[in-house]
Amino acid sequence: MASAPHTGISARQAEAGRYDLVVLANRLPVDRTTDEAGRPGWRQSPGGLVTALHPIMKQRAGAWIGWHGLPGPAPSPFVHDDIHLHPIALTADDVEGYYEGQSNATIWPLYHDGVEQPVFDRAWQDRYRAVNLRFAQAAARVAAPGALVWVHDYHLQLVPGMLRELRPDLRIGFFLHIPFPPVELFCQMPMREEIMRGLLGADLVGFQHAQGTRNFRTLAAELLGAEITDTGIRYQGRDVAADTFPISIDVAEQQRLGSDPAVRSRAAQIRRELGDPRTVILAVDRLDYTKGIECRLRAYEELLSRQGLDPADTVLVQVAVPTRQQIDQYQALRERVEREVSRINGEHAGIGRMPVHYLHQSFDRAELAALYLAADVMAVTPLRDGMNLVAKEYVATRADGTGALVLSEFAGAAAELRQAWLVNPHDLDALEEALAGAAFADADEQRRRMEPMREHLRRHDVNAWAAGFLNRLGRIAVGSRTPAPQRAAGSRGRWAEHARGWSARPAGRPVVRSSSGDTAALARD
Ligand code: ADP
Ligand code: G6P
Questions:
Q1: Nearest to residue 166, comparing CAs of 488, 473, 494?
Q2: Is a pLDDT exceeding 90 seen at residue 277?
Q3: Is the distance from CB of 45 to CB of 29 less than 8 angstroms?
Q4: Which of 354, 379, 468, 514 to pair with 488, CA 20 to 30 A apart?
Q5: Rounded distance, CA 292 to CA 320, Å?
Q6: What does residue 182 show for φ and ψ, rounded to 5 degrees?
Q7: How would you class 164 by CB atoms within 10 Å of its CB: exposed for 0-12, middle for 13-18, buried for 19 or more?
Q8: Residue 477 to residues 22, 148, 520, Cα–Cα distance (Å)
Q9: What are the φ and ψ backbone dihedral angles of 267, each rounded to 5 degrees?
Q10: pLDDT at residue 47 in the model
């Protein structure tokens, strides 16, 4: 994405310093970058959350609060691509404890079925509390009276509860982009009650999949003794709605890219550059252990070895987007994947042809669309995934109904894209069968499968997803809520206690001194 100038905020809302819609996500839609000449710029942030929210926020005059991707002071609020961005500062310790630690080495693996061992660390938990409070305070400052505040993802699960304490007038929604785990997994978390209370501070909590919604309701009852009602959860005199809102993509934009002559000609060029093989299989993932890259490589290699696919006429393009590179588990995964790719190429390559093309890079959306058009088979085989937008992008981009999608049963997208070759990625035989079946499907079978999926996406695009969530949140009558409990004059509630260095625990449980020194200053904001 091209750099944009640092413009001042001009909208009437922003002049007043208050917004009717405020989105909070760990990341802003753009990351701060520096080129070789030392010039600063902005680049689109990685991942499905940003892809989905970016077009939504461009249409609505709201504010987006998030991190700009580097440790250190935050830039002043600015407008980028018509979105009002409010950067949050994270120190190097915050990045290590809140982002790399508690968010991505504890919660991420735990919520993804524990496919890697979650690590629990008290100092990370304190950072997580401190940074969540910082986000909540930023939202409390910029939200207009009665505004809708939409909090996103696992990094910010304490924010709804904190924000309700700071601003009881707001309607607060929370959406989790990743799976919400079953009781027995969630209960491993040392902060389990605190996180559930944080989430229950929202008026509406949304999940990708019905299973997540069920897990949340069960946990609210079992862990906190909340009452489960027909519409949601009653907790401490408030009604909290919990429901399923499968996220989607900007289908119109993806179709536009798919029919763009420049993108089509680039797709043809990619096939030529790959040596015009009979079959191009594509996989596009952040280089994350949840994405099942190793199982996929193993299945592909076995197919080549026993001539289920012809090594001379088949290419796998594995795009592995760099991600979370400071975290041990991600570094170890990268080493394993790169070793495996070299091994497969060493054993099956010929002069001038390679069975695996491995690209550890980010691309712009047009190049990605060209790759989708160039691929006969799209292999989306995560071990666990909240949704997986890549699968939806592939289907939407291919306007002529050709192509074949192999999709893991453990991706949220499998609940909707039922006509794909659905597969258990842990079952090597099934994975090989699905890849070969997709590779040899004729055009009739491809269309029979792709058409209903494209039709489904046309009706369920990202606009429908956002409208579904925000309309539901907007319908929640502020007056129908039981008023917040009275607090002593001057008190800012239990979360403010965190800011003074104490962690909130249910009455009767040990109180732990927090080590996060910077929070005291925050409380005085
Ligand atoms: P996750 O959110 O876990 O990364 P998703 O599949 O839901 O997984 O979303 C990934 C998003 O990142 C998609 O919108 C996809 O288009 C985008 N993306 C994937 N690979 C690249 C790449 N190499 N360069 C830029 N964007 C990419
Ligand atoms: C997933 C998460 C997002 C996250 C993205 C990229 O999509 O749900 O919240 O932003 O991965 O990960 P990163 O750690 O680079 O933000």
A1: 494
A2: yes
A3: yes
A4: 514
A5: 12
A6: -70, 160
A7: buried
A8: 18, 12, 35
A9: -60, -45
A10: 87
The ligand whose atoms approach the alpha carbon of 378 most closely is 1
Residues 6+ apart with CB under 8 A from 450: 395, 398, 401, 402, 403, 404, 405, 419
CB 393 within 8 A of CB 364: no
In short, whether 103's Cβ falls inside 6 Å of ligand 2 is no
* CA dist list (Å): 450 to 261, 455, 524: 22, 9, 56
Please tell me whether residue 471 adopts helix, strand or coil conformation. Answer: helix
- State the Cα–Cα distance between residues 327 and 331, nearest whole angstrom: 6
Q: Which residues contact 514 (CB under 8 A, 6 or more apart)?
A: 126, 129, 130, 498, 501, 502, 503
What are the helix (H) ranges across 143-209? 159-166, 183-186, 192-199
Instruction: Give, using CA atoms, the residue closest to atom 6 of ligand 2.
Output: 47
Average pLDDT on 48-66 reads: 90
Q: Are strands 83-88 and 78-80 parallel, antiparallel or unpaired?
A: antiparallel
On the CB side of 462, CA atoms within 13 Å amount to 24
Give the angle subtended at the CA of 343 by the CAs of 104 and 359, to the nearest 5°. Answer: 50
The neighbour count for residue 444, using CB atoms within 10 Å, is: 8
- Asked if 372 contacts 378 with a C-beta cutoff of 8 angstroms, the reply is yes
pTM for the predicted model, two decimal places: 0.90
pLDDT in tens, 303-335: 999 999 999 999 999 999 999 999 999 999 999
8 A C-beta contact, residue 225 and residue 265? no
How long a stretch of residues is the chain?
525
Residue linked to tokens 């040392």: 190
What mean pLDDT is predicted for residues 140-168?
97
113 assigned to active site: no
Which is the catalytic residue, given 80, 86, 112, 177? 177
Q: Which ligand has the nearest atom to the CA of 385?
A: 1
Residue 491 pLDDT: 34
Q: What is the pLDDT at residue 482? A: 46
pLDDT value, residue 11 = 46
| Strands of the 83-88 sheet, one edge to the other | 78-80, 83-88, 63-67, 19-27, 143-152, 171-175, 204-207, 238-244, 232-235, 227-228
Mark whether 385 is an active-site residue. Answer: yes
> What is the sign of the dihedral through the CA atoms of 332, 338, 341 and 345?
negative
Best mutation site among 153, 289, 385 for ligand 2 pocket (most ligand atoms within 8 Å of CB): 153
What one-letter code names the amino acid at 326?
Q
Rounded to the nearest integer, the mean pLDDT of the chain is 89
CA nearest 103: which of 87, 85, 121?
121
Please classify residue 120 by burial: count the beta carbons closer than 10 Å to its beta carbon, then call 0-12 exposed, 13-18 middle and 19+ buried: middle
Average pLDDT of 108-118?
Answer: 97
